[in-house]
Specification:
mainly beta
Length: 217
């Protein structure tokens, strides 16, 4: 019986070692690209391999969206997720992540996630500027995509991949996930190196037709 117990103990220890083995993932940054080769990188415990795709629309890029891809260890970031914020269809950012389990499993191309273009969310004040870090004044209203989206303001200093620094201020819509994770250090196409202000909020409900708010003394 003792022999059997020792054998079971050794098998258990061996199985634990296998289960605790850290995964190896590809790690790379591809600016203005849909793919990057990557180098092998050993991840911390309980990590998956991750591929992040981003699309950024800024007037500093002649109005053309910048697409970039990053491969890395998941490091507790949400998997199969979609962050986005937008002022309109020209000025926006969108980040999507995909995870996989197994050594070097993130060696393929990114499969674009389905995204809705429906306008189901709240109406938010909207403005955008890369000329200053002073908050812009809303000039229009944008309608958010999803029911869980929120109105947002962001004020930051950013650096593009070519090393040029800009101020960035914007008001518009932001997904619930982007509101929960304001650390955008996983972005490739631009670096938000100084986040000065980041606020998400739900707008006040609009008064129903035919009703007027009473003035208070």
């Amino acid at each position: 019986m003792k022999t059997a117990g020792v054998v079971l103990l050794l098998l258990s220890l061996g199985l634990s070692t296998v289960l605790a083995e850290n995964v190896t993932c590809l790690k790379c940054d591809g600016h203005n690209a849909d793919y990057c080769e990557g180098e092998e990188h050993k991840c911390p415990d309980d990590n998956l391999c991750m591929t992040i795709s981003e699309s950024i629309g800024l007037d500093i890029n002649n109005g053309k969206p910048m697409r970039s891809v990053r491969k890395r260890c998941s490091n507790n970031l949400p998997c199969m997720a979609n962050w986005y914020a937008y002022y309109n269809d020209t000025y926006f950012f969108q980040i999507s992540s995909q995870c996989c389990k197994g050594n070097l499993c993130n060696n393929g191309t990114f499969q674009e996630m389905n995204k809705t273009a429906e306008k189901l969310g709240p109406k938010c004040p909207a403005c955008y500027s890369t000329d200053t870090s002073k908050m812009c004044t809303p000039t229009s209203v944008t309608i958010c995509r999803g029911e869980t989206d929120q109105c947002a303001t962001i004020r930051a200093r950013i650096k593009t991949a070519d090393g040029v620094e800009h101020g960035l201020t914007a008001q518009g819509c932001m997904s619930e996930l982007a509101c929960q994770y304001p650390d955008y250090s996983y972005m490739v196409g631009l670096n938000i190196y100084n986040l000065l202000e980041h606020v998400c909020y739900l707008p006040k409900p609009e008064p129903e037709n035919g009703t007027e708010s009473k003035a208070t003394d």
